[in-house]
Specification:
Elements (H helix, E strand, L loop, with lengths): L1 E4 L6 H10 L4 E4 L2 H6 L2 E4 L5 H11 L1 H7 L4 E4 L1 H5 L1 E4 L4 E2 L4 E7 L8 E7 L14 E7 L1 E3 L5 E7 L1 E9 L2 E4 L7 H12 L2
Parallel strand pairs: 1-2, 1-3, 3-4, 4-13, 5-7
Antiparallel strand pairs: 5-6, 7-10, 8-9, 11-12, 12-13
């Protein structure tokens, strides 16, 4: 069973639909016991960082998520809130990744929206995925490069397109909107 964390961030239904297409059972929940006992946990997100973090704190999910031992996948805002600090709303994150989240400089169109190439693939999650594959992004803030970076995208500047530390995986792009490549990535996560 896959637990998709329910909070005031959007996009949970499209993640569940993508899992359904792969034949995976999932539940959208904020129940501590169901999340703790799930085989895998997905922490998706579309929204604003400070209000979303406030919602997580109100439910105690900000303490539960970093304590999980099963594979956890953060997507988009979910990835950013797994980091240390976020410039959006001057938000303190969960600190799973010791990385800062910064706003893109206004040297090009922000938000970064649409298909873009990822490279430097360095994780089992990318099994069967070719270098310089196109995936779908929608974001105005980016995670800095670090030792936890498992793929890179270059838009205005190079940034972490994905991260991994222990049982925590994260993607800035949306696998549920990234066609065959996204399905492959989600399937690889399900097989962890």
């Amino acid at each position: 069973m896959i637990a998709i964390i329910k909070y005031n961030g959007g996009n949970v239904n499209s993640v569940q639909n993508a899992l359904n297409r792969l034949g995976a059972e999932s539940i959208i929940t904020d129940n501590f016991e169901l999340i703790s006992k799930a085989d895998k946990v997905i922490f998706p997100g579309v929204g604003e960082a400070s209000s979303t973090m406030k919602s997580l704190k109100e439910k105690g999910l900000d303490k539960l998520i970093p304590a999980l031992k099963q594979p956890v996948l953060g997507i988009c805002l979910g990835m950013q809130l797994m980091c240390k600090n976020n410039e959006e709303g001057n938000t303190v994150g969960m600190g799973i990744f010791d990385i800062n989240v910064k706003k893109f400089p206004a040297k090009d169109i922000v938000p970064h929206m649409g298909w873009n190439i990822i490279s430097g693939l360095n994780s089992g999650l990318f099994s069967g995925v070719e270098e310089e594959s196109d995936v779908y992004f929608v974001h105005s803030y980016y995670c800095e490069l670090s030792d936890n970076t498992t793929s890179v995208c270059d838009y205005i500047l190079p940034f972490s397109a994905s991260l991994q530390k222990d049982n925590f995986y994260a993607m800035q792009f949306h696998p549920e909107k990234s066609g065959k490549i996204g399905s492959q990535l989600l399937n690889n996560f399900l097989k962890l």
